[in-house]
Amino acid sequence: MVHRGEADIAVSKISITEQKSIVVGFSYPYNIETLTFATRAPGAIPKTSAIFYPFSFQTWICLAFLLIAIPMLFCKFLKKKYSIVSLAFRVYGILLHQELLLKVRAVSDKLLLGSWLWGAMILSLCYTTLLLSFLTVPVKEKGVQTIDELAAAASRGRYKCMTYQGSSSMWILQNSKTDSVRSIGESILKNNGLIKLNGGV
């Protein structure tokens, strides 16, 4: 409007960019705003897969190796008094609060059995408590938390970033010294994410 001669002065939230400075003169900035990002709110995770919530993927892998190793360890210490399949059912039954039908006499066997009983009790208690909390309070999907995560999501096409055409935001994104911020600017141009504004300065 100003550079077309339709107005002598414009007073508003006008961003200062290098392109605008070519055709209009700006006063000293009276307000400095920060640049933030808004993404959609994470949705709730379905409760059908709640049995996997209490532990992380790495923890489940460790537990899988542990559950494989425990029957073998019992089989070795008990000197093959029981088959490994029988031991597996008996040992795993403790996690489900079943009675452990194992006859042990040696002190080392009792220590091994006692250690597993304590470990199984703590493991079962932690899992049950966490599972109950997850079922009581809805669990949200993990949303984008940082600029790096947003840049990665935008580059993979999971998020479409948009901004106003001619605003300072695009100039900041394209000329940033941070790779992830520049990547967001490139994603906006690549996916036609510029929104046209009616009128202008």
UniProtKB/TrEMBL annotation:
It is a multi-pass membrane protein. It is found in: Cell membrane. The keyword Zinc does not apply. The chain crosses the membrane at residues 57-75, 87-104, 116-137. One of its GO terms (cellular component) is plasma membrane. InterPro entries: Insect_Ionotropic_Sensory_Rcpt (IPR052192). It comes from Stegodyphus mimosarum. Keywords: Cell membrane, Glycoprotein, Membrane, Receptor, Transmembrane, Transmembrane helix. This is Glutamate receptor, ionotropic kainate 4.
